Predict the structure.
Amino acid sequence: MLILGIESSCDETAASVVRDGVEVFSNVVSSQVEEHRKFGGVVPELASRRHCENILGVVGQAIEQAGVTLDDIDAIAVTYAPGLIGALLVGVNFAKGISLATGKPLVPVHHIAGHIAANYIAHSDLKPPYICLVASGGHSHIVEVVSYTEFKVHGRTRDDAAGECFDKAARAMGFPYPGGVHIDKATQSGNADEYKLPRPKVEGCEFDFSFSGLKTAVINLIHNAEQKGHTINKSNLAASLQKTISEILTEKTIGVAKRLGYKTIALAGGVSANTGIRGSFAKACEEEGFTLYMPPLSLCGDNGAMIACQGYFEFLSGRRADESLNAIATLSLENL
């Protein structure tokens, strides 16, 4: 079964053709990073405009690279939630247009479920149930993957996501957008024990995250040093920040797995490309005797292949949408 996956939830216009949820025939991504860099972050209106300009070419290129035609496609999967509403609408309406024109089934896909599904492409032996940490610029979730299409969230961010903390702290350090990758690079020559940073907790919610206070602590540390004429070692601060975030994510995810009796853990989302986080999880899982799955770097960020993969499982479960499908900016993974 060939699924055409379309993704436009933030600032990447992406499309992919995938067979049976695992065999990627094409995976085309048009990034807007360079354009948004001068603003220090994604500008929603600008992102929506670029999606409008790019989506026809991206989808056409994905179909051409796959060596197929629309007649060969069995279903169209599209990200409909969550994300920037204007950006989502571009992908949803384009997918609805293809579905109506060709008569192909339309399959709605939750963006976070798509990130989780990226692991199935890389790891054919990974099967539910297991625990997955989804960490990106907008999401930090500890998810119990009950089945390919059923999820329970046991931990989530109450304010900033891990990726947002990386990016905003990086901006305060003087790194360009997106800051997470620059933090990761600076860490390679830094001393992670130089700065002692707070580890915020959410009272009464053991496995929830709160990264806003950590971000503020880094920003205040920088500002206080500047006011006193002191010099901050950016590499050391970057390393300290990365270590703190990595340990928080690892400890809480391992904690959920132990509480629920799981010994299989997966990572997903853009932040799962971070070397510190990958290393922290690898070490912890080895110590606990857990099996760890991580997507390749090419599938960590937003892409169409993960949407096509999840679309395949949603299709098998009987999920369909019609022309009334709408984009949703905020939607819990548990409310599908």
